Amino acid sequence: MSLPLDDLYREIILDHYKRPRNRGELDPHTVRAEGNNPLCGDEIQVDVRLADGKIEAIAFQGRGCSISQASASMMTEAVKDQDLKDVAELVDIFKRMMHGEDVDLDELGDIEALEGVQKFPVRIKCALLAWTTLEQALDEAAEETP
Amino acid sequence: MTPSMDLGRLRADFPILERRIRGRPLVYLDSAATSQKPQAVIDALVDCYRNYNANVHRGVYSISEEATEKYEGARDKVQGLIGAAKRESIVFVRSTTEAINLVAYSWGRQNIGPGDEILLTEMEHHSNLVPWQILAAEKGAVLRHLSVSEEGTLDLDEARRLITERTKLVGVAHMSNVLGTINPVKELGRLAHQAGAVMLVDGAQSVPHLPVDVRDLDCDFLAASGHKMLGPTGIGFLYGKTELLESMPPFMGGGDMISQVWLDHASYNDLPWKFEAGTPNFADAIGLGVAVDYLQAIGMDVIREHEKQLTAYALGTLGELPDVQVHGPRDIDIRGGAVSFCLGDVHPHDLAQVLDQEGVCIRAGHHCCHPLMRKLGVSATARASFYLYNTENEVDVLVSSLDKARAMFGQFGPAGN
Ligand SMILES: Cc1ncc(COP(=O)(O)O)c(C=O)c1O
């Protein structure tokens, strides 16, 4: 079995890791969620500000490996200014991609670069962390505003 | 390397070491997680299943007798390894984790009450933390923890302060799986006994790597895992002083642990079988017995000496690198061969991934020690850990492979946390 590391650590992933986008806290925020990956100690906090059924602003902070941090950074760029419905769809597509299903990569833009992660089973959780945390945040927000 | 150990010949006993990963020799530096197995242990398992597989303590036919004899023989070997006075002291369990849970469940539920204190340390593995948390929550007991110093050691003065007449149990890892620290469990046991408390030693990392003598340590309980000491997975043991084991209620109920059973009550079997409910994992216990033979044929003191030299070499080479931070004591006399380190701001997970590409297996993560990671101020560490089959050359491969990680991730990383 030979897995080229370049499949995992694509240039764009390393770039997001080096220069994370939307890193920090958001004040004010509609909802904040925290996630962690007990297996490797990755931690993440996602702040979301909602307006008119859209993600108006989003920020993340945390610590973890390049994959978890780059995935978070890429996610924030992808979901910003998006309708919640589209966000839910994107989260779904991303999760399905991580689980090895065939998905329409065009829908994903830059995020497509994370496709290689699914060949490294222990890293899938790293890539998913930010996404499941965002999902959790949006679920909480939905519960609070009936 | 000690003259009494021919490393080349010894390595040939471990077939997995011939494996190549992506064309490179396997460099296995994760024996603190689980050790590799010599051919003799693998053969013992095959021999059992092929030639005398039968349930133990049951059949009157010859292969059952043979299996029983070998299973009980393995107990004698473990007894010999740790210098226990009586074979009844050795209870076969699944692992260190199960051994500690057995004590927490059986001894703990009988002896711990509201306000009683259980003293652990900040460097414990989750398996020596969580069972006590569950017990304390149930009984209204109080958990206390000896702190870990900058150098990764415990402080006996603090122990003198914290061990009081309220203390009912002191539970400490003999050797830390993260820092490598060898803790003064004998002295801690003495303090525990002076206060009337019971001493439990987590021997998961010490029994495989050091001469351990329970009579010298005078501990009340000692737990260890077979898979970390060249034996199979799924088998470990609890040593307990017989007076304590006698006084404790059973852990699990079922076959084998009973003497007589009525519909509404039962009387229990003698030690050690009182604590071995159901069909035991005899095949793996027999494999563990063979592993003990293997270790003793080399000599635990010889193994310790080899690992000391290797660890000194690793601490020396890693310690020279300006971007490597090594955790744990530098004094080779108080540490074993589990070496946790960080490479600049490269995340350990990424480091381990890059090293895997070079055939080098190291562990990255929290090593089942969340509280210790918080104490060290990191979310994870990389850890190389050594055993009798590792070589200085393998340390060199580790060190030279760090360059690959530097090239990919060096001099950057998330700005702050
Ligand atoms: C110090 C220590 N205690 C306990 C354990 C638990 O061992 P097991 O998982 O075999 O029960 C380990 C294993 O990593 C350990 O290193």
User: Per CATH, which architecture of the largest domain in chain B?
Assistant: 3-Layer(aba) Sandwich
Number of domains of chain A: 1
| Fraction of helical residues of chain B | 40-55%
> How many distinct beta strands of chain B?
17
What is the fold-level CATH name, i.e. the topology of chain A? Answer: Sufe protein. Chain: A
Q: Which range does the strand content of chain B fall in?
A: 15-25%
Q: Numbering strands along the chain, what is their spatial order in the largest sheet of chain B?
A: 4-10-9-8-7-5-6
In CATH, what is the homologous superfamily of the largest domain in chain B? Type I PLP-dependent aspartate aminotransferase-like (Major domain)
The number of helices of chain B is: 14
**Beta fraction of chain A:** 15-25%
Secondary structure class of chain A reads alpha+beta
Unreliable segments of 5+ consecutive residues of chain A: none
Going by helix content, strand content and strand pairing, the class of chain B is alpha/beta
What portion of residues of chain A is helical?
A: 40-55%
CATH architecture of chain A: Alpha-Beta Complex
Q: Mean of the pLDDT scores of chain B?
A: 95
Spatial extent as radius of gyration of chain B: 22 Å
Question: Ions, cofactors, ligands: which are bound?
Answer: pyridoxal-5'-phosphate
- The low-pLDDT segments of chain B are 412-417
What order do the strands of the largest sheet of chain A run in, or round the barrel if closed?
Answer: 1-2-3
